[in-house]
Amino acid sequence: MSTELFEQMAQSIIDGDQEVSADLARQALAAGLDPLEAITHGYMPGVNKVGDDFACGVAFLPELVMAGEAMKAAIAVLEPAMKASGTSRQILGKVVLATVEGDIHEIGKSLVGTMLTSSGFEVYDLGVDVPAAEILAKAQEVGADIIGLSALLTTTMVKQKEVIDEVARRGMKVKVMVGGAPVTREWVQKIEADGYSEDAIGAVNVAKELMGLKK
Amino acid sequence: MRYQCQLLSEVEKEKIHTETLHILSQAGVRYHSQKALQLLEAHGAHIVWEEKVAHLPAELVEQTIRTCPPAFTLGARNSAYNYPLPSPVTRYAMDGTAAFAQDFESGERHYGTDKDNELAMRIFQKMDMGVMAWAPVAAEDKPAAVRPLYEWFTSATFCSKHLQHELHTSQQAEFLAEGLIAILGSEAQVKNSHAFSFIYCPVSPLVHDGPMMDAYIELGSLDLPIMVLPMPVPGTTGPASLFSNLCIANAEALSSIVVYQLAHPGRPMIYSSATGTIDFRTGSYTAGTPEMGLMSAALAEMGRFYGLPATSAGCTADARSPGPEAVLEKMTTSIAPVLSGSDILVGFGELEGDQLLVLEQIVVDNEIAHICERLFQGIDSEPEKVLTSDILQVGPGGHFLGRKSTRRLSRTNEFYLPWLLDRHTLEQWQELGRPGMYTNARRKVEEILAGPLEESLPDHTRGALDEILARAEQQLSKTNVS
Questions:
Q1: Which residues in chain B are closer than 8 Å to A166, comparing Cβ atoms?
Q2: Cis amide leading into B205 (omega within 30)
Q3: Contacts (Cβ under 8 Å, ≥6 apart) of B63
Q4: A107 vs B236: CB contact, 8 Å cut-off?
Q5: Which of B42, B131, B221, B291 is deepest in the core (most CB within 10 A)?
Q6: Is B456:B158 a contact under the CB 8 Å cutoff?
Q7: Distance from CA of A160 to the nearest CA of B (A)
Q8: pLDDT band at residue A90 using 50, 70 and 90 as cut-offs
């Protein structure tokens, strides 16, 4: 029964169907299945399949995003049960995400958030136009491992440096990764960011590297 | 007759309008500008203050759009370059605010600088199809807080055509006003000439920037025209069909225009768009696609539907470097909006989805513009072009090279003679080192840059602008990491 259910779970992710993925999670709980088993053997193979397919150009971006959303929907059902039983899924790291102050462009940052969440990170998405102080306060509050900063404009990407400078000034151990259309490796070196990616899938790999995990 | 196309039927335009009104009243639009929300509320919009969302009633939208002037002249520092809108022909604007530039000598890619803007403006000044300058790159070597002021003043210094650019905050507005007055000599001249205008991009979907909108409202006192350029991308920041993406772009355009008209009724507005697509395999933004050309053309038609001057993004490309891919994409995104009658296509000189300035591309694009213009001119059947008498006289066999009509028409726009495309004979071409259009374009760039400055601002005005910039920098700069 479990094997069949696991396959359905993986398929619900591949299909990007939030309703089905959440419904299967409820079925698993009703059947007494270990939520961690469901994530590890049911949903994650689906996430990995879509991720691999996207990396080689087979899956399209909406399929990747909807797989991430379906994964989030399943986790939302399973997480309370895990907490109630005193277990928890393996969190690869805590990430505070924001689009920097003065910039209200959202989509890139949100995509990164979805991809990180579906890959096992705990993400705190602060939204857009977020001042450095607010980002740092949240990072300290949750004990973030990584701060992710998005900026679409050359005039606002300077705010990425503000955050990095403040992290250094406060002696915080958190890593900072940056992204956005005008961000280049040259810029990353200049502001001494810890990580950078051109796209959301790459951001997951960078985050894993920053956590000392293999890609 | 002229070769014109109609992409949208009258029924389709009405349908876009109806869907747009539905979006504006039901979904509403988020304004990060307090001033905008207050204006809208005072005129009957329902505001959800905690979300900064305004729901715009149809009557408000329709009445307010009617206060826009249907025509005005886009002035220029040199009035010889004045360009009346709407226009019976399509002309071109420099593409703007790219993050990067390609070094002309080394070919290396670097963040845009003030010097890049200077060089590009000197080239653009000499392009006969270009009527509207826009700072080609974001000058990353200037402090972010005053960067747009540098971009404005450098562009105005080296180009005497109409200049359009942006501001990011209200604090920058007074310095810009001072600079524009210094350039033209008086406030009245700035107001009356319409030599300078703003470009305004809503943030898709359905969001308006606060500081930028506030700055533009503030400078309504100078009657600076505003070109509204929505940029929803189907399937990401816009809905996935081209039709519905047109609707959301239209909603963003109208919801911008409503605010600017409520603040300053009768202020000149230009309806525009830059609706690119993405490559769903990678998520990369693409601006050189057939869908981009179609949406640009359709939205130019929507601008006309509202009785407004209508411009479009076009002559855009995603190629990483100059070459055939760039030319193919630029032709693809030019032809449809030109044939639909767009007043201005915005796209000269840039690649990589408007992110990379390449000087020689400005020259190549001017050639593309000429070719599109020739297509648009169509086939003339006026009496002087009906040459049946020549046919009767030459009869079967023979040739027409000796006819007076041939001699006359060979030197008219009946035949476009390219000035970049190579038309030498094979042996000549080989002897010349096999030149291509980019080789020829680079020569043109070298020639222009080696020549004298043309119509640049006099030293005393440049001194005044430098003084304004120094003051602005002192007052506004907080962060400079360049």
A1: none
A2: yes
A3: none
A4: yes
A5: B131
A6: yes
A7: 11
A8: confident
